[in-house]
Amino acid sequence: MSLFGSSNFGLPRLKPLSAKRSHVVSVLDIGSTKVVCMIGRLTPRKESSVLPGRTHNVEIIGIGHQRSRGVKCGVIADLDAVESVVRLAVDAAERMAGLTVESLIVNVSAGRLASDVYTATIDLGGQEVESSDLKKVLVAAGQQSQRHDRIVLHSLPTGFSLDGERGIRDPLGMYGDELGVDMHVVTAERPALRNLELCINRAHLSVEGVVATPYASGLAALVDDEVELGCAAIDMGGGMTTISVFAEGKLIHTDAIAIGGHHVTTDLARGLSTRIEDAERLKVVHGSALANSADERDVISVPPIGEDDRDQPTQVPRSLVTRIIRARIEEILEMLRDRIQQSGFSPIVGKRVVLTGGASQLTGLPEAARRVLARNVRIGRPMGVAGLPVAAKGPAFSTAVGLMIYPQVADQETHAGQGGLFSPFSNGNSRIARVGQWLKESF
């Protein structure tokens, strides 16, 4: 039975980690450029001023990554191709860790991610706020978000209000006449999630939890002050660029555009009349998002597109490569700037933007982003995780590391669906119920 096809609109929900026990967590990042499987050992840690929200230390004990096939702009386009790549990535991680993976936490970028805020209020009659009142108001907000064509990925209370006074973090024990909550809900289209689950099931694995890509990359790359004061994390992948906005310690907005680093490569392949793989190499070795005075003098050799050995490489000035790249990069950055503006969260983002994802490694990109976005920009790398090989310490692996961090913050979410708060399991015989039972026994 499909998790995403049942009448109950819930996803499998991660049980909060026990602060006193170690856990082994497996994650899968399915992207347009690469598929990454990581297996990590989470061990309890003492409260620390460094990354204070983290309850566990994360050590990567297995990692496998493969070049992606069958994924286009974050959407699964070929089930067989994705299934085989998932098997290879998981197999490599299992061999390195010396254990077998049965279920995984996976990311989702497709399904037209939507970010909405729902507000609900209940009458208190001048009484003290009790936990049952909190539950009631959260259920009221959660029920507004239920739609048969979309699935709720994340449901985060961003703030409570008492008698119209907003910005209350924890109203428990306070007195008032009316209790309100603002609930940030991230949803995705049901078919996209069903296809994702189908791919994973075909590889004889099950889905333990699903995390929106922008949320995962933000968790990995943002420092505490950024999450608290307000910041945007922009994850630039091969086929998708996603935005997440954090403030007061919570995810408050997400967005995604179906354009990324692969579009830059395709522009180069067309503009220089060369193969995609040669264009990718030119982009990595010679490409830049910023013009340089030496670009006109430097000449680059471009391999021909044909198979004929007599075809000679074309010589082009580096400035041509830069012009092609710059045009597309500026278009992406302008779209991101407009999306942040339209969201209404521009003042909260303030001057702080962090870039992650493989495409963020392009030379000159932070400078180009500073100019177009008119904000301070830094490249974000995965933080607070031990055991990563050198090749996986860059921004390209932020989403996978964020998935590994996610179980530590999963308890911030409320799941008020038809099954009631924190109760996504509909009947005892469904596979969701069995996953839930397994989680209870394991953790």
Automatic annotation (TrEMBL):
Give yes or no: UniProt keyword Cytoplasm: no
Membrane spanning stretches: none
From which domain of life does this come? Bacteria
What does UniProt give as the signal peptide span? none
Outline what the protein does: Cell division protein that is involved in the assembly of the Z ring. May serve as a membrane anchor for the Z ring.
Q: Which family does it belong to?
A: Belongs to the FtsA/MreB family.
Name by which UniProt lists this protein? Cell division protein FtsA
Q: Which organism is it from?
A: Ciceribacter thiooxidans
Name the gene behind this protein. Answer: ftsA
